[in-house]
User: What shape does this take?
Amino acid sequence: MSVFLGIDIGTSGTKTLAIDEKGNILADAMETYPCHVPKPLWSEQDPDDWWQATITSVRKVTKKAKLKPAEVKAIGLSGQMHGSVFLDRRDKVVRRAILWNDQRTAAECREIEQRAGGRRKLIKMVANPALTGFTAPKILWLRNHEPSNFDKTCKILLPKDEIRRRMTGQYATDVSDASGMLLLDVAKRNWSKRLLSALELDIDLLAKCYESEDVTGKLTPAAAGALGLTTDCLVVGGAGDCAAGAVGNGIVNRGVLSTSIGTSGVMFVHCDQVKIDPEGRVHTFCHAVRGKWHMMGVNLSAGGSLQWFRNELCKADVAKTKLAGSEVYDLLTKEAKAVPAGSEGLFFLPYLSGERTPHADPDARGCFVGLTLAHTRGHLIRAIMEGVTYSMRDSLAIFDGLGVPVRQIRASGGGSRSPLWRQIQADIFGRKVVTINTKEGAAYGVALLAAVGAGAFKNIREACEATIRVVQETSVDRAARRYYDRAFPIYQQLYRSLKNDFKSIAALEA
Assistant: This one.
């Protein structure tokens, strides 16, 4: 039997799963680790934690599935995008990795735009504006604020690519993940020498770029020993978690869009040609499909908004449901379901971590607007679900305006498991929402890429057609849609009305 592993180096933990030649999942495992917040709006992790989680989860999976080491033919890697791992000349980590949701680099974003000759020129170079979450601003922040650490740095890798280095000894990345560094010429699918020159960064700091299904190396003896596998095991390029999750949802053809509600919210649509928003409101990245691209809108606190509400305002309910063996989200959803569409005029702006799409504003703050004495906890919960979905509709509206076709919407992530949230998505988006037969997302996507790299499938489209199918549909409620169509412009106006106030609040906190 030939088996392929998908490993996703996430923010909360590393997930590993194993599939057979037909795409059937044989076993999976998850290992968690901490996130460090040394200052407000900073976010860091220790790459050693990722590696230990990888070793443990791989061994758990092979044990659960009763796999022989030689049966594992290839590994696909996914991971949180934009993070920065700084290595010295001995491949030792210089400092903790700075993550995608870290907001410290506003000044460096301005520096990048200035060095590039302006925002529009930067977008022409790398298809995207400078955002605080991207990797390039983190590199400049290290140079500006920790010069001794920058001077030690010889290589800069993305999270999944640091795991690849520990597996294979190779410095390699794939074009989908590299797109999020803000250093890739996305149209040409290789590093932008022009921007690197403007930023005074040496191209040798970066890894070699591969397509997502390309083989980037084999396990070293040390890595094979640690993982319990063989040195014949291949490691393919893999993909950033958004592109990998899209592959895992079968978003590999024109006209198909995925919506993912996890910690963040992602709207991801396949493109056969490069399409760039000249205003930089949504991202254009290389896809994990060879020679193709995708557009993507990202909201920083989607499921994370409901998680915050649960953790901070529902502690007694969490304790009660845990004792009862039930799930607190089921209780919260029940309360929200009893509330009519629109939460009786209550809006929630889900900017708890600032925002990326479409505002690119690290100063944005979350808030409820429209509260009255008539509102209950159920109204707050439903307003959070609706606010997150409105924020994702912002991206859909941009795709529509740019002429990107969207014929089908596939829901994934934690939000897709809630029938109520699926219905809210269908009603706010005004389109039917479907779910598919697998819910494993990024890890499944890169397991399929590993299978392609090892020759089990001709290409990733063939792999998806053989393994992924639609299993459920949620149709639009016309009355709810009419309400949301009237409410959406009000939601959009709220940010514009509060934008300057957000900056004043941020100045108070400085």
About this structure: The chain has two domains: 3-249+438-471, 305-401+418-431+477-509. The chain is about 40% helix and 20% strand. The CA atoms of residues 91 and 503 lie 40 Å apart. The chain has a mean pLDDT of 96.
